[in-house]
């Protein structure tokens, strides 16, 4: 796990667009406690911008009615929230126990070499980004990677080659 | 103690209060259970796992003491091999990424991690991988400096800002070994109680920029005191020390628990008010602009008093009940008037609904109960009649308040008997230095009618005299406020049942017996 606490400012004020604004109002009725809405609201913000800026996190805090520090906690805890812009294809490799024991490092090393990236970086052309994440809940089919949220199970270098070939 | 339960600790029977968790219940019986995250003001969080204890025949057999109420017949084991292993392992976890920089850490000597390591671990480190580096010397605002590497992530500071001040500036960001306490970018601590975080932090992660590197904890003498910063009378510790060849000075105040008055905390303003005990003190005796010996100063005042037809004595709302009484007595002796005018001490809008009172004086109730007139009209009238004014440390000019009174005073023969060099005393022809509240003892009554006794903490190389001693030197009969107590008690019906030596440490709420007061 790397330090994710360095938030990046987009330099622009953030507000939900009208569709997400409506979605926020629709979802918040589900929760008896407003703070329960922090995570769905962060998700909406990320959907809109592709990543979460300092401004977006502050906006979510204000909108939900909680402390910015609390939203900051959640946004940095979950790797599904991107705290900086990601590539067109965002590759997440699970690094937790089952995947670790099933040689996730080979996958990370291969991707890093192939794409010229270290985990946490975005390729210069903006096509790929690579990240090591905590347990993705697919321990039975480890090692597992996610490409833009889509799961690829029981991965190995051979399968990765095919996968990458289909991405360009 | 109220309702009690009997339980066994390491096979010894102990009787403790019912309804408390094991940490608090056993602490009263003198049995310590190590813990980081639990604090009585913040409740049980259960995140640090340091307080795990074994319950014989319990289900589950190992439980966090902070979340386990003391129950009748419970068999608590604190010294089994399993618990010793648990404690050792927890400390090993806490120390994996800890810098162990105790020699340069302010907390050393009063650090729970250090103490627990000595008591429960003493293991060599088994780590051969590089430590996780985090940020140090972060300015969190309000004088709080944070070192992320020393932190054990107990979350007391975070819970304090959420539960007590409800300002929520802090959070624990990231996860696993990258987790750390941080503020949201651009939103530092911004509340009037932030420095309590430094007291709350069980390790050296939160330090005060004011106290950092000033003094080692083990050199400090910790005396109990009562804050004179406002009418609340919060309880605090006065941590002071005399350096070799130096004078006894105060290095910090810390909150002292008193559930009847201030709970577990004090405000930052009160905490920092210790500077005023060290600085800007009046130490010289001055007569007619020249520095003289203390005795000559007193002689000059006595001479003036003997010649005066109508002296006016101004008492301070910060003085103790005994000091006020002593001034009343010498006023009677010299046929003088007494005023307790001190409107300037009340700063409207400066209070809050927690601990901070807008009246910045500690014992206005004392003035009221002794029927000392505080109104301005009375002061102006008596000032008009007076040919000599003795001001006993009343900073009527507080917050540059009353320029007109200051001007009138400057036209009189004005004697300032004062602890500090303040604008209010500048025009005095005679200045007599006296002790401030950390240097004498007495009783004060807070705005809520709680009478509190405090003792002398600081012993200066040249100890200044307190107001009672000064009145004695000026011809008064009172040698000691405690001996004068029978007289005070007769005057104030509210104090009729109060015996100074029997005022408990947490103070005593005064209840009116319904008898009318005798006017002093």
Topology:
The complex is a heterodimer of chains A (168) and B (520).
Chain A: H1 18-28, H2 38-49, H3 54-64, H4 68-77, E1 89-94, H5 97-101, H6 104-115, E2 128-133, E3 145-147, E4 150-152, H7 157-165
Chain B: E1 4-9, E2 12-17, H1 22-28, E3 52-55, E4 62-64, E5 75-77, H2 81-95, H3 112-121, E6 138-139, E7 144-146, H4 156-164, E8 170-173, E9 180-183, H5 196-200, E10 206-208, E11 221-226, E12 235-242, E13 248-255, H6 268-272, H7 275-278, E14 285-287, E15 290-292, H8 294-307, E16 311-315, H9 321-333, E17 337-339, H10 364-369, H11 376-385, E18 388-392, H12 403-410, E19 414-418, E20 430-433, E21 442-445, E22 450-454, H13 467-473, H14 485-491, E23 508-509
Parallel strand pairs in B: 1-5, 16-17, 16-18, 18-19, 19-20
Antiparallel strand pairs in B: 1-2, 3-4, 3-5, 6-7, 7-10, 8-9, 11-12, 12-13, 14-15, 14-20, 21-22, 22-23
Compact description:
With 168 residues, chain A is of the alpha+beta class. Chain A has 7 helices and 4 strands, in the order ααααβααβββα.
What is the strand content of chain B? 15-25%
Q: What's the number of structural domains of chain A? A: 2
Task: Tell me the strand order in the biggest sheet of chain B.
Answer: 15-14-20-19-18-16-17
Provide a count of the helices of chain B.
14
- How many strands appear in the DSSP assignment of chain A? 4
User: Terminal Cα separation of chain B, in Å?
Assistant: 40 Å
Number of helices of chain A: 7
User: What structural class do you assign from the helix and strand content of chain A?
Assistant: alpha+beta
User: Spans of chain A with pLDDT under 50 lasting ≥5 residues?
Assistant: none
Structure description:
The complex is a heterodimer of chains A (168) and B (520). By secondary structure, chain A is an alpha+beta fold. Chain A folds into two domains: 18-77, NADH-quinone oxidoreductase subunit E (Arc Repressor Mutant, subunit A), CATH 1.10.10.1590; 89-165, Glutaredoxin, CATH 3.40.30.10. Helices cover 42% and strands 11% of the residues of chain A. Chain A contains seven helices and four strands, in the order H-H-H-H-E-H-H-E-E-E-H. In chain A, strands 2-1-3-4 form a four-stranded mixed β-sheet, with helices on one face. In chain A, strand 3 and strand 4 (150-152) form a beta hairpin. The longest helix of chain A has 12 residues, at 38-49. The model of chain A has no long low-confidence stretch (mean pLDDT 95). With 520 residues, chain B is of the alpha+beta class. Chain B folds into four domains: 4-79, Roll (Ubiquitin-like (UB roll)); 126-208, Alpha-Beta Plaits; 218-278, Phosphorylase Kinase, domain 1 (2-Layer Sandwich), CATH 3.30.200; 285-509, Rossmann fold (3-Layer(aba) Sandwich), CATH 3.40.50. In chain B, 23% of the residues lie in helices and 19% in strands. Chain B is built from 14 helices and 23 strands. Chain B has a seven-stranded mixed β-sheet, sandwiched between helices. In chain B, strand 16, helix 9 and strand 17 (337-339) form a beta-alpha-beta unit. In chain B, helix 2 crosses helix 3 and helix 9 (321-333) packs parallel to helix 13 (467-473). The radius of gyration of chain B is 27 Å and the shape is elongated. Chain B starts with a strand and ends in an 11-residue tail after the last strand. The interface between A and B is medium-sized, with 22 and 23 residues.
